[in-house]
Every structure is written in C-alpha cells, then in structure tokens.
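TASK: fixed-backbone design
INPUT:
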C-alpha cells in the first residue's frame, strides 16, 4: 500500500473507536438522566443528521484543501462535542456536534484513499478500511461496555478522582465523567495522528461556493451517480446496508436486554461478535473478490435479511452468538466489493470528495429514515422481536429486487 495509508488507518481507527465507545457512554448518560428508552436511537439520528444536511458542502470542502488537514480539524470538532457532554450540555446536542465532525471527516477519508490507492487495489484497500472500522466498532463496544460498567464507574478510586476534580471547580457530577474525559483524550490522539498523514498532492479545479451553485452541483452529482448502471447498483446496496447496520445496532441491544435479560454493559459485547464476523467477511472479500466480480455478492443480501429474522426467533445465547457472527461475515462479504465498486465509479464520474459526499448523503439519509422509523415503533411500544423479524424479511425482499434488476440489466442480448 502507498506511503501514509497505514497512518491514515491508525488515525481513523482511533477516531472510530472513540465514536463507538462514546455512543454507549452517551446512551448510559441518557439512562442516568432518566430519559425513556426510545431516545437512544435519537442519538444516532442526531449524529447522522449532519451527514445529510452538509452533504452539498462536504464534498467541495474535502476537495478544496489537503484532506489530512481537514480530518484533523474535524477531530477537533469531536473534542468540542465531548467537552459539551462534560459541561452538562444536553446529550443529543453534544452528540450532534460530534456527528458534525464525523460528517466532514468521512468524505476526506474516503477521498484520500481513492487518491492514494490505484483502482486495481481499491477492493483490498476497502477491505482494510472495513476491517479497521469494524475492529474499532468491536473494541469500541467492548471499551464502551467497560466505561459504563459498575466496575469502572462505581470503583472507589474513580469516585476519589471525581471528588478531586470537583474540588478544582470542574462539573464532574455524573458517574460517567471519567469515561467522557478518557474519550476526550482519545480524540486528541486521533487528531495528532491525522496531522502526520501526508498530502496526496491531488488538486481539483476551484468551484463556486455560492449555496445555490453548491446545491445545484450536488443534485447533478447525485443524479449522475444514481443513473450510472454500476454506480447506481452499488449505491443502492450500500445505502440499504448502512441503514440496516445502524438500526440493527440498537435493535440487538434492545433484543439482548429483553430476550436474553442482559444489562446494557453486557449487551454491548454482542456487537463485538457481529464485528468479528464483519472482519472475517471483509478480509475474505478483499483477497477473493476482484472489482469486476462485485455484482456476484448480491445474493448475500437476501441471506443477510433472513439471518436477522432468525435472530429475532431465538432466545438461546449460544445460538444467538453464532447467528450474529454469521450476520457480520455475510455483511462484510457484501459491502466491501460494493463499496469498492461505488468508489471506483464515483471517482471516474466525479471528483473523489464529491463522489464520497454523494455516497455519504444517501447512506446517512437511509440511516436517518430507518432510525426514525425504529424509534417511532419503540415509542408506540411495539415489541422488539416482531420488529426485528419484519425488518429482516423486508431487507431480503429489497435485496432480491436489486438482484433481479441487476440480472435484467446485464443479461446478454
């Protein structure tokens, strides 16, 4: 891989680890403050909203300056969001600031990968990216579970440290204050690592920064990518996949608490099982599936939905672990080739930053819609088990439709 790729992976791993751990800590903070359970998915909603609202700006911004520098600035925004949590800002608002940093970070990160890595190696590079992201999710879930556990929060030494900090005038009343302080330091490390990532040297023609011009250009880019046969197919699959993944993250936590009677600190570890499966699936995809073979993985989407429905029907811990690991593996095998194909077509049709911004807009709009629907169903007190089963079957139907459409489009004349 090119020089700087490893450092880029280290920086994004550190930042992504903190994102995943912070989600669990902020969920625990909502519980500590007495908010109802349906507020938990709204955290992810607030985090993701910036991806959608800022999509017309994020791409041109990523193309307007060295991407590594922009990524360091975005980590500084995440630092500000965690500081807000420490200072008592409402969790949804503070987590939205962290999401704002992530929204600017993503187009720069993926755009820098397409600038550094040649097309034939994009699937392999994406497998490393997904492995890094999923390892961060895995370890972030484990770390977040530890940071909200009584073993950490209620320990005598932790109470003594909080008392000392309060004596200095700091507002460390919450039992989760030290957890937030630790995550604040981790974001600082990520920003420092990012400063060491080299500039790719890629430069793009300057574009108008007028809001109307930016919006018009974004709409054109979005339409162009959707209308491209391979770009539109891969965009549809990744859009569905990331919406599913974000919703499943909360559904599994809720299901584990209801079906397996696990507390939040232990239910979080089930996400790590999914992450292990994704690592295995992503690694296999990176070494076994070439870019021109990406469409062959579409049937796996049907399998993915069926597995989610099966999980909802079990209350056996061992069986659940196996199914969750299989869900992760199938997801990794599906998304890595599709993501590489999408980046390849996006870079060919648009600039690196603009194509990633379009991708991020669609994927995160899917996350917003699915999370809003999930939160609404929870607020109406729909049991999580039929919710997950219906969710899985709907995914299978959507992926079957995409597979059939792709078969018709590329059928020999």
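OUTPUT:
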């Amino acid at each position: 891989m090119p020089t700087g790729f490893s450092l880029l992976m280290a920086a994004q791993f550190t930042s992504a680890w903190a994102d995943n751990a912070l989600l669990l800590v902020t969920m625990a903070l909502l519980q500590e403050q007495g908010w109802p359970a349906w507020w938990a998915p709204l955290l992810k909603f607030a985090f993701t909203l910036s991806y959608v609202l800022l999509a017309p700006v994020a791409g041109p911004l990523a193309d307007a300056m060295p991407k590594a520098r922009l990524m360091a600035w975005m980590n500084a925004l995440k630092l500000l969001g965690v500081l807000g949590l420490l200072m008592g800002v409402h969790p949804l608002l503070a987590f939205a600031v962290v999401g704002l940093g992530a929204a600017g970070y993503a187009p720069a990160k993926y755009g820098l990968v397409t600038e550094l890595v040649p097309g034939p190696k994009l699937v392999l590079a994406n497998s490393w990216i997904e492995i890094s992201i999923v390892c961060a999710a895995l370890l972030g879930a484990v770390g977040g579970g530890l940071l909200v556990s009584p073993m950490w929060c209620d320990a005598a030494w932790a109470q003594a440290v909080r008392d000392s900090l309060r004596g200095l005038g700091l507002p460390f009343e919450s039992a989760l204050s030290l957890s937030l302080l630790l995550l604040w330091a981790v974001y600082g490390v990520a920003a420092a690592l990012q400063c060491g990532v080299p500039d790719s040297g890629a430069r793009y023609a300057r574009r108008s920064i007028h809001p109307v011009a930016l919006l018009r250009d974004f709409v054109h880019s979005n339409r162009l990518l959707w209308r491209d046969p391979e770009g539109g197919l891969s965009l549809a699959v990744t859009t569905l996949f990331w919406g599913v993944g974000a919703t499943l993250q909360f559904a599994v936590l809720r299901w584990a608490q209801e079906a397996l009677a696990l507390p939040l600190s232990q239910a979080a570890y089930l996400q790590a099982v999914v992450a292990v499966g994704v690592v295995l699936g992503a690694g296999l995809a990176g070494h076994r599936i070439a870019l021109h073979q990406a469409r062959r993985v579409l049937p796996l989407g049907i399998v993915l939905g069926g597995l989610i429905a099966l999980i909802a029907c079990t209350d056996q811990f061992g069986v659940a672990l196996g199914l969750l690991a299989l869900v992760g593996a199938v997801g990794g095998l599906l998304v890595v080739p599709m993501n590489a194909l999408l980046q390849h077509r996006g870079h060919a049709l648009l600039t690196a930053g603009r194509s990633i911004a379009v991708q991020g807009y669609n994927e995160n709009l899917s996350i917003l819609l699915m999370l809003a629907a999930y939160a609404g169903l929870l607020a109406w007190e729909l049991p999580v088990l039929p919710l997950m089963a219906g969710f899985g079957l709907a995914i299978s139907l959507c992926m079957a439709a995409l597979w059939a459409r792709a078969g018709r489009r590329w059928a020999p004349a």
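COMMENT: DSSP finds 16 helices and no strands in the chain.
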